[in-house]
Amino acid sequence: MAMHDHHTAAQTEHPAHDHQHPSHVSHKDQEKGSLACMVVTCSDTRTRETDTSGKLICHLLKEQGHTIADHHLIKDEPEEIIRLLEKAAQQPDTQVVIINGGTGISRRDSTYEAVDGFLQKKLDGFGELFRYLSYKDIGSSAMLSRATAGIHEHVVIFSIPGSQGAVRLAMEKLIIPEMGHIAGELAK
What is the pTM of this model? Predict the structure, then answer.
């Protein structure tokens, strides 16, 4: 009986350990501030007018209160991609880079190799979850996506396919819900 009283007292003394709000929920609630983002579209064929995926990323970020620090449209050339990633890493205010396009398997698709080689810490779960969610939508062709994410210094980098469906899926289901939490972890 004394143990039961002690347990009840301990629960009363530590209300912060309330099991109604898991720690991942409270982390997200605390980190809903505005983040400065760089958006990059890698494409050999798109123009500013036809870059609907880049525009969609910007729209979804602004809708959530984030700012667009830079928005670039470049050819799928590894040197260009690395140059922009280095630029982001040198800008202390840029916290997130979202690259769309170049994640497939054609000869010209080289975004994955450029981004993957630049990452200091990889977030393997991002690509795994993206492909899982894509599989539920488009079936086995989801395995052709080489979406990836990770960290370089203070910057969170996401590399996603360039189709509007893939962009919406990645942004709404994975990137927007977690980017504040990840950026907050990097600031610790």
Answer: 0.84
